[in-house]
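pinning this so it doesn't scroll away 📌
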Amino acid sequence: MVRLQIDGDIEPILAEYIVNGIQQANADHASLILITMNTPGGLDTSMRAIIQAILNSQAPVVTYVSPTGSRAASAGFFILLSADVAAMAPGTDTGAASPIMEMFGQPAKIDETLHKKITNEATAYLRSYAEKRNRNADLAATAVSDAKAFSAKEALDGKLVDFIANSPEDLLAKLDGRTITRFDGSTVTLSLSHAAEVPVGMTMREKFLARIVQPDIFFILLIAGALGIYTEFTHPGLFAPGVFGGIALVLAIISMQMLPVNVAGILLIVLALALFVLEAKYPTHGVLGVGGVIAMVLGAMFLIRTPWTGMGVSLSTALGVALPFAVIAFILTRFVMRSRSWKVATGREELLSEEGEVTEPVGTAPGMVRIHGELWRAATAAGDIPKGARVRVKKVDGLTLEVEPVGPRHGS
């Protein structure tokens, strides 16, 4: 018997872990696949991938909301009802599967026709397999249409689940010797008295990817990458911002391939970056800066497109990233703009406009001048300049300075 676990949001990496676990269990001819659940819901595409794997599994699949205090809400409700056997632990709940969209942490108002289309399609999808599992499809549909939720006892009495079990061991004891009907109409008798349990957890790769595909983490990586690359371009030679910014940006791109990213959100974030730079270059008393913050927060809100659970970037994360980023970007850009007006302090260019004293007359033939305690070969187009006169550097041509007189020598 293989045991898998859904713990947390249902997202692409979790779906990959469950689907791969089911496929491997089938390849190993497992007698049963037990999926324990504790989830608030997740993405529609990930949910459907898991359900498809469950419905096509050669080995019987049991879904079990456990331990006590857990839930199988929203997308989790769909998955719970898709298995050959559905069970719950005492003190758990399920349901509340109405599709929603959120903005600023609150349900967003969408077109009524669009809302009906999403709700009706979700209800039809749930009915398509709940009826074949001999579950109460009418009651199950109310979890979508009316956002109804059910305690473990209500789900059992309403024929949504098959068992209430105190523990996985109690559940297996109740299943042992039971004959169940598969999705294709065939029957199988479970023999679990001597079944060895094989827990299958996420690999290190899956655990890492599961973290970076979280909407909040994805948004932070995206902004951190942009800030790191920007810092490296404006301050060449620091290396560290460019290296870490590049890594963050690559990880954000990986996440972007797995999440339903909205192009409008990306465009708003790009606009925010442009506004921050323009605010530093053309001071507008904060108008462009405020616009940049608003654009970045709106971009974060629109960044993840999902009509099922509103799983997206939280408002607190959006503000917590946008405000500091605005300050940092403003300071960096203002520093760069000011540095362009600074006089060069090293190399030959530092001699421009400097004053010195003629030590050998400068005229039709080159002479010598002393500047910064150094003797330089000098030439002039202003006529003869006697020894002891003060001159100013107009141009540096190789090792020869072009100078002009600035007045009589002082103190001679």
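📌 and the second one:
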Amino acid sequence: MEARHKGRGRPGIGRRSFLKIAGGGLGASALLSGLPRGWVGGVHASQAPEVREVKFGIIALTDCSPLVIAHERKLFEKYGIRSTVVKLASWASIRDNLTSGEIQATHMLLGMPLASSMGLLGSPRKPMVIPWLLNRNGQAITLKSAWKGKVQGDPKALKPLADEARKAGTPLTFAMTFPPGTHAMWTRYFLGSGGIHPDREVGLVTIPPAQMVANMKVGKMDGFCVGEPWNARAIQDGIGFTAITTQGIWKDHPEKVCAFLEEFAEKNPRTVKAILKALHEASVWLDVIENRVEQAAIISRPSYVNCPPETILGRLQGRYDFGDGRKLDDPHYLIFHRRNCNYPQRKYAVWWLTQFRRWGMVEGPPDYEGVAKKVMRTDLYEEAMKEIGFAHGGPNGEPETFFDGMRFDPKQPEEYAASFAIHGLKGPQR
């Protein structure tokens, strides 16, 4: 660690030099007498992480990259964290391992910490916090190959197909990765925009990301929503095509987060901030487009995504082949740092709560402001960035507009939740 923290010790004196000098007769107490009080091995004791051994959970998706790159490039180590990255099979196992303390930080769907903090949809009530957004964009809705030329980015084209299947007694089936998660909400929003009620007119099933392609291959579903590289893999395997990317639904939408138990973050704020500092460096590196070849090579390994790097790379570079003849160089491809990507905007939590409300996952209006403030820890983010001198873009409370023209105003969440023609609202409305 001798070269890691410049200016916090005598220049040029590392561990080997220290031992040599000490062995030559100069006592350790004399040698250390000129160093700042509280200095221990390159960092001030008061600044060191409270917990140094940290296990990070990931799912086999391209957007786990910031955690993997911070580990592989030894950025966690730079900030005093000895990291282990553990690939888990499903989002439910991610939640359960974080809840039990088996992992201390994790790649997670944005809606999951909200659901766990509120005890919704089968989640045990366990407060979690989000001090960091890992990425924006980079997901898609894949449909079976039989619908090429019939359905593209307009969900209204799905409506007659859904009606026909329902009348025949074989409703269409769509897969997402976890009920309160991002993919579930993109699927619901897309279907609802096409006049299809996701809880009444089609079947929704939960499938882990890496199993999506295999399940479509054997005919278990008509479409799915997942992160990359599994949409690109469905095209490569000839079983599906991309109907629409999620950034086509909501440009620069929030996606995965780095989440912690609230209890862990309260007890170990320096540990959390050390992790955020490492993630910042990793995210800056990831958004240099020339680094994406190396990124694809690293995350493609069996211990991470376990997919050929060439399957991953195209969409990482913003080059989209939809598999039905359409091609696009998308300026809103997967990003990890730019456009104030990582700030844990509270309005995003509010939007998720409006969707919980819209689909009857809560009864009556939730505490939009209170839950968002408790889960989205802007304080931890801002403190960590201040300590490394990074000037972030700050909070953004501006309205957002979606592909169907619907406008979300975070100052009027209940009115927004009740404004949709397709919904499952429960309980009193205000």
